[in-house]
Amino acid sequence: MATVTDPSIEFLQREQRLFIGGDWVSTGTSFPTLNPATGEVLAQVPVAGQTEVDAAVEAAEGAFRTWRETAPTKRASLLWKLADLVDEHLEELAVIEVLDNGKPIGEARAVDIALTAELLRYYAGWPTKLAGSLYPNSIGDMLTIGRREPVGVVAAITPWNFPLLEVAYKLGPALAVGCTLVVKPSELAPLSTLRFAQLVEEAGFPPGVVNVLIGGPEIGAALVQHPGVRKIAFTGQTATGKQILRSSADDLKPVNLELGGKSPNIVFADADFDKALAGAFGGIFFNQGQACVAGSRLFAEEPIAERLVDKLVEKARGIRLGHGLAPTTDMGPLISARHRERVLNFIDGARNDGAEVVAGGGIAAVDDLEGGFFLQPTVIANVSNTMHVAQEEIFGPVLSVITWSDPDELEHLANEVPYGLAAGIWSSDIAKAIRLAERLEVGTVWINTYGMFDVSVPFGGRKQSGFGRELGPEALDPYLVSKSIWVDLEPTRQQSGQSIGRS
Ligand code: NAD
Fold first, then answer.
1. pLDDT tens-digit series, residues 60-105
2. Ligand 1 pocket, mutate which of 292, 442, 467 (most atoms under 8 A from CB)
3. Is 240 close to ligand 1, i.e. is its CB under 6 Å away?
4. Is the pTM of this model over 0.85?
5. 472 Rama sector, left if φ>0, alpha if ψ -120 to 50, beta otherwise
6. Most exposed residue of 4, 36, 392, 496, measured as fewest CB within 10 angstroms of its CB?
7. What is d(CA 173, CA 340) in angstroms, rounded to the nearest whole number?
8. By three-state DSSP, how is residue 23 classified?
């Protein structure tokens, strides 16, 4: 097993600093970031204060003009170079992600880091393809040009569950269109973003185009309120999203909100059983259940429900918990002791509400990792859709199984949550599955698959899962504003009196 002294992660032995205006900045205060598999301190990270927030926004404002006027081919090549550097450092970045977040190394490599590089390449293709338009006005000899311009300085505020990837979701499209950024990753897993900032520097982006601050909610809030920030791109909890929306109202900053979920994963009796079983299992246990799209409400049709639950229990009990760097590990720890406590409270609540915990349900003991924040993979049966465990996002390896028999009621139950992020449908009747998919109030539906992502396919939520889209071409829109420019081509035309308009 690699340890923190592994040469591939020499970065962790260095003094960590903020990245502001192309400089590496120390601050007077720091806090520890923990390895959740051991509970031990992994590194001390500097904490930004208002001075650093002001400096980072100022640096991003200063760099904005240069960056927006940088030739599209140059912006493209820098993004492409950054993608190459991410690939080159894939192993190191994956190890950092494992140590800071706890996830298994295979997932960190294949999802977090590989997708980050792919995403940067996808957006590297866009600067040279963003076109404006000419509007067909009916005035005559008047040119009306439609421009799409970068909105300005973006504050990117991100969560800990896919630490670097969530930054890349925002940074890729924002840089492609010509915005500059102040990035604030989660204080619970900030290290991959700091290493990534070094790669930004190495790639040769002009100073100030990307700035990285570390800190907690107060630094996020300071960015939201900063007058120099023109756009907030946020991923995190629904409750935080609501706070951000309220504070952004003071100066009407546009906001993108990618928030929590409580996704239904619906299995019809006519589904390919093994495929649905694997989809239900992966849908909840991937990333320790700490995924916004976790299929945390499993709707099992009556005839197959018992068999499905039995098999899920068997598989859940077979999950090997361990250090994310150990090759035998299927699942790592939760992000923190506090978060594990929160998840355990949900499980206790389900018991009190009359549901049955049929697998897991408690703290897991893992050999040689007594200080880690491990939790047993948990399956809860006999859940009704109104219970807290079915209505609130748990964000852990906890599956609530709801048995159903009436298809008309199913649609209602699936939609009957505050969230609207994603859903899964398993059936051999594709027409039936598509009809149901059309009626679900969510941003993404997977039919006979679950949790698929691609850089070209937009992703985002509805209802209290937020608004705005990441990935694909739609992810460019939030970072662009349109401008109409009128040019009179008729030299003798006089504006009549004080009128505005067509006369
Ligand atoms: P969180 O809301 O606690 O924190 C997210 C970020 O916001 C952190 O950087 C945090 O420091 C900052 N923050 C906290 N309070 C703030 C405030 N008042 N003002 C400004 N910034 C503030 O979320 P988390 O626990 O880090 O992440 C887990 C959540 O993220 C889950 O709800 C999950 O569903 C959601 N998530 C959603 C998506 C999606 O695409 N919809 C993807 C990943 C995670």
1. 999 999 999 999 999 999 999 999 999 999 999 999 999 999 999 9
2. 292
3. yes
4. yes
5. left
6. 496
7. 34
8. strand
